[in-house]
């Protein structure tokens, strides 16, 4: 039986040689966490099922630095590596794959030009193209968008881009379904309401998307303790859970979280 | 030297690094004649069945000869599927047919592609599974799976809607549906076993 995956995410500032891993709280208060390839190797040794690198730099030097980071990492880490942030063209995707990435995640560029999803999946296979969706709850006028009944009332989910700085008016559920039909192999679904809060995943968002697409959904945003990961596996159809801060600052080891999940009856790789 | 067949369909970095890690002295080979001198050959898997065969067919003779000479050959993922006669993924495209049978789509009621770690059920403790136990997990990414006519070639399976052939072993020909290069230490162990078989 397919196991649930636990995926550490490294937000990388690539404006310095070798890059550095940082984590912001709601995109403010940036904290330094370590060197990307070193952290990735540590998580691999601890039992990470996959590693995601997200480039949060704005500089132009980044493509080269990310290539270096992936090359270095793939010499030491033998689980799948996904790379996202700033993948705008098939050419960007190609340079990530050539450096050793197994998957790329696309967000802003795909919202602007959805064909990018088809281009990547046709060239590298569906599994290689992950759609990242950053979604935020919107209560009030849904204008015909897909509405979800939540504990706090009816809402819809709006896609944001540019790392949560701008909103699109696009319905996140409809977008996920469209991306699936365009060839995305997986959805990395982040709740902008929960990201960086340590309050747990947005279970209603996660389940709304995961029960409407056939491709795997990676839940993201809000993990503060292992119970949150257990909860998202027990209460939604998520295939994987992504977490950053709880691993970065030594609060939890990936392996300990997975042991906990296994004890509670979740099928994970130990 | 372990040759990695490069048929121009993408990144061989991962398999190269993994073979390097198990001290296989890997070499990426772009021309059939460069397979000469290899102790073993890895056929990695990238892309769709038909496209893959289009690029791989020029290696057919050289690979066939290597198999006849008893050289260990390891197919990975699509590199396993092309060993069969044909695939539903690319109707009309011909596989190598070294393992009789066909490749069919995973059942509709499960997530397709199967993406992630699944536990291996060992049917036959063959050499490349040395040190691997029942329940050890490997990383899979695929939408189609192999159905050999002779089930005795199947050394290991996983469950994903149906019994999926995960490891094939037939004399000096081995293949895995999973990616050993992406399956952590267990995957490295499988590669190490393969490399050892190539050296004796």
Task: Describe how the helices and strands are arranged.
The complex is a heterodimer of chains A (270) and B (200).
Chain A: E1 5-13, E2 20-25, E3 28-34, H1 36-46, E4 51-55, H2 62-76, E5 81-84, H3 90-99, E6 103-106, H4 108-112, H5 115-124, E7 129-139, E8 148-150, E9 153-161, E10 166-171, H6 172-182, E11 186-191, H7 203-210, E12 217-220, H8 226-235, E13 240-243, H9 245-248, H10 254-263
Parallel strand pairs in A: 1-4, 1-13, 4-5, 5-6, 6-7, 7-11, 11-12, 12-13
Antiparallel strand pairs in A: 1-2, 2-3, 7-9, 8-9, 9-10
Helix pairs in contact in A: 1-2, 2-3, 8-10
Chain B: E1 2-5, H1 13-21, E2 26-29, E3 40-43, H2 49-56, H3 60-68, E4 73-76, H4 78-81, E5 86-87, E6 101-105, E7 114-119, E8 121-122, E9 137-142, E10 144-148, E11 154-159, E12 163-170, E13 173-176, H5 184-199
Parallel strand pairs in B: 1-2, 1-3, 3-4, 4-13, 5-6
Antiparallel strand pairs in B: 6-10, 7-9, 8-11, 11-12, 12-13
Notable characteristics:
heterodimer; A: 270 residues; alpha/beta; TIM Barrel; eight-stranded parallel barrel; 10 helices; B: 200 residues; Rossmann fold; eight-stranded mixed β-sheet; three-stranded mixed β-sheet; 5 helices; 30% strand; globular
């Amino acid at each position: 039986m397919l196991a649930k995956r636990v995926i550490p995410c490294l937000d990388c500032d690539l404006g310095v040689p070798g890059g550095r891993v940082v984590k912001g709280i709601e995109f403010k208060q940036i904290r330094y966490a370590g060197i990307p390839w070193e952290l990735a190797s540590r998580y691999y040794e601890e039992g990470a099922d996959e590693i995601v690198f997200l480039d949060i730099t704005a500089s132009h030097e980044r493509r080269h630095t990310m290539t270096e980071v992936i090359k270095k990492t793939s010499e030491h880490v033998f689980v799948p590596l996904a790379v996202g942030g700033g993948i705008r063209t098939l050419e960007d995707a190609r340079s990530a794959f050539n450096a050793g990435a197994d998957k790329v995640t696309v967000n802003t560029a795909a919202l602007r030009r959805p064909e990018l999803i088809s281009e990547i999946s046709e060239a590298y296979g569906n599994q290689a193209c992950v759609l990242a969706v950053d979604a935020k709850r919107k209560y009030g006028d849904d204008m015909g968008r897909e509405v979800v009944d939540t504990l706090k009332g009816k809402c819809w989910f709006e896609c944001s881009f540019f790392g949560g700085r701008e909103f699109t008016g696009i319905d996140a559920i409809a977008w996920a379904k469209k991306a699936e039909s365009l060839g995305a192999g997986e959805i990395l679904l982040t709740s902008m309401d929960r990201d960086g809060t340590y309050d747990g995943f947005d279970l209603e968002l996660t389940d709304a998307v995961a029960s409407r697409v056939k491709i795997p959904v990676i839940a993201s945003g809000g993990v503060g303790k292992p119970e949150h990961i257990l909860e998202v596996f027990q209460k939604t159809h998520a295939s994987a859970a992504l977490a950053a801060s709880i691993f970065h600052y030594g609060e939890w080891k990936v392996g300990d979280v997975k042991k906990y999940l296994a004890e509670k009856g979740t099928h994970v790789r130990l | 030297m372990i040759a990695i067949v490069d048929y121009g369909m993408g990144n061989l970095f991962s398999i190269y690094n993994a073979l390097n890690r198990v001290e296989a002295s890997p070499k990426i080979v772009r021309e059939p004649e460069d397979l000469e001198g290899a102790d073993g050959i890895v056929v990695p898997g990238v892309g769709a069945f038909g496209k893959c065969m289009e690029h791989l067919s020029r290696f057919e003779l050289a690979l066939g000869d290597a198999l006849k000479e008893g050289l260990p050959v390891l197919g990975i993922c699509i590199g396993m599927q092309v060993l069969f006669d044909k695939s539903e993924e690319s109707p009309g495209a011909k596989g190598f047919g070294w393992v009789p049978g066909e490749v069919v789509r995973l059942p509709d009621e499960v997530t397709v592609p199967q993406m992630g770690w699944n536990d291996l059920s060992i049917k036959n403790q063959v050499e490349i599974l040395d040190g691997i136990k029942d329940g050890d997990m490997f990383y899979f990414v695929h939408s189609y799976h192999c159905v050999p006519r002779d089930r005795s070639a199947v050394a290991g399976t996983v469950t994903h809607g149906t019994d999926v052939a995960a490891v094939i072993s037939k004399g000096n020909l081995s293949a895995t549906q999973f990616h050993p290069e992406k399956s952590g230490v267990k995957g490295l162990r499988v590669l190490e076993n393969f490399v050892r078989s190539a050296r004796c």
